[in-house]
Specification:
With 303 residues, the protein is α/β, with parallel strands linked by helices. It is built from eleven helices and ten strands. The strands form two sheets. The chain has an eight-stranded mixed β-sheet with strand order 1-2-5-6-7-8-9-10, sandwiched between helices. It has a two-stranded parallel sheet with strand order 3-4. Strand 9, helix 10 and strand 10 form a beta-alpha-beta unit. Helix 1 packs antiparallel against helix 4 and helix 5 runs parallel beside helix 6. The radius of gyration is 19 Å and the shape is globular.
Length: 303
C-alpha cells in the first residue's frame, strides 16, 4: 500500500526556521506599553516570527484603524470583519508610544478599511503628524493598502510626507484572484506610479511572500514590474500558513534561492535594497533599509 504524503505544513521545517523566543526586558516593556495604550501591532496580529528579535531591539510595527480587516486574504492571519467607528485618539496614542520607546524610526500599517470613504488615509496622515510633532527627527514608514484606487486618499498620505511609503504586492498576478481576490495587481502598480508623480523624494517599498505556487519566472517578472514603477526597496520572505485553514504551502525556498533573488534584485534590476530570507517580513530591518536608500540618494546628488 503506497504511503500517504504528509502535508508540507506538517512536515519538519528546515533548520533555518528556528526562532529564539527571548522574553527580554525590552520585549516585556513593549508588550506592556501596547496593552496599556490599547494599541495593536501587526507583529502580534499577523503572528510574525520576528517579534522576539524586533521587540527586544525596541522595534514594532503599529497597526492602526482597529484589528479587523474588511478583506479576507487567504494568506493572512489578521481577523476579518467590520472594525466599527474610527478612533481619532489612536494617532496620539501611537505617537506617545513611539516617544516613550525612544524610537528614531517608526513603522505604521493598518488593516484594510474599505468601509471608510478614504480607506483610513486621514488617520494615517494624522498619525504621521502626531509623531512629527513629538519627535521631529523620527523617520516614518507607512505600509498602506491600495485605498481601492482612491488617489485623493493616497494624496492625503503623501502630503503628510513619510520617509517611506510601502505597499505589499504579495504574490504574482496569476495567484491574485485565488489568494487576495479583493486586490488588483495593476492597481497596486498604479499606486506606486501615483506616489512617484506626487512626490519623488519618498522612498517606495514593496514585499513578496514566496512558496504559494508561483514560478521563478513569474517572481522575476513581478520584480521587474515593481522596479519599472519606481520601487527601490523590496522584501522577500517565505510563506508560512498561520493555520491549516489558510492557503496551503506549496514549498519551502532554500537559502540559496533567497540569496539569488537578492542578487538579481540588487545587481541586475537595480534595487537599492533587497531583504530576502525565510523569516523576512515587510517591516523587518526597515530602518536599515531606509538608511541605505538615503545614502544612495545622497551619493547620487553629490556625484
Amino acid at each position: 500500500m503506497p504511503s500517504v504524503r504528509q502535508p508540507i505544513l506538517l512536515q519538519k521545517k528546515p533548520d533555518w526556521f528556528r526562532v529564539r523566543r527571548e522574553h527580554g526586558p525590552n520585549y516585556l516593556e513593549l508588550r506592556r506599553l501596547v496593552l496599556e495604550e490599547g494599541l495593536h501591532t501587526v507583529c502580534q496580529e499577523a503572528r510574525c516570527p520576528n517579534i522576539y528579535e524586533c521587540w527586544n531591539q525596541r522595534t514594532a510595527t503599529f497597526m492602526i484603524l482597529g484589528d479587523r480587516c474588511t478583506r479576507a486574504c487567504r494568506f493572512c492571519n489578521v481577523r476579518w470583519g467590520r472594525s466599527g467607528t474610527v478612533d481619532w485618539e489612536e494617532p496620539r496614542r501611537v505617537a506617545e508610544a513611539v516617544e516613550r520607546l525612544g524610537l528614531d524610526f517608526a513603522v505604521i500599517t493598518s488593516v484594510n478599511r474599505d468601509d471608510l470613504p478614504d480607506g483610513g488615509a486621514a488617520v494615517f496622515a494624522a498619525t504621521i503628524r502626531e509623531i512629527r510633532s513629538r519627535i521631529p527627527s523620527c523617520g516614518i514608514e507607512v505600509l498602506i493598502p491600495d485605498f481601492l484606487g482612491n488617489w485623493d486618499a493616497l494624496r492625503t498620505v503623501v502630503e503628510a510626507r513619510p520617509e517611506v511609503i510601502a505597499h505589499n504586492i504579495e504574490t504574482v498576478p496569476r495567484l491574485f484572484r485565488v489568494i487576495q481576490p479583493w486586490d488588483e495587481y495593476d492597481r497596486s502598480l498604479e499606486l506606486f506610479r501615483r506616489v512617484q508623480a506626487m512626490n519623488d523624494t519618498i522612498a517606495l517599498k514593496s514585499g513578496l511572500i514566496v512558496g504559494m505556487g508561483e514560478t521563478w519566472d513569474e517572481l522575476l517578472a513581478v520584480m521587474r514590474d515593481l522596479r519599472e514603477v519606481g520601487v527601490e526597496i523590496l522584501t522577500i520572505g517565505q510563506y508560512l500558513p498561520p493555520t491549516p485553514r489558510h492557503f496551503p504551502l506549496h514549498r519551502y525556498y532554500t537559502l540559496e534561492e533567497f540569496e539569488e533573488l537578492r542578487r538579481i534584485g540588487e545587481e541586475e534590476l537595480g534595487y537599492v535594497y533587497v531583504e530576502s530570507g525565510p523569516l523576512v517580513r515587510s517591516s523587518y530591518h526597515a530602518k536599515e533599509q531606509y538608511e541605505r536608500y538615503r545614502a544612495r540618494r545622497l551619493a547620487a546628488r553629490q556625484g
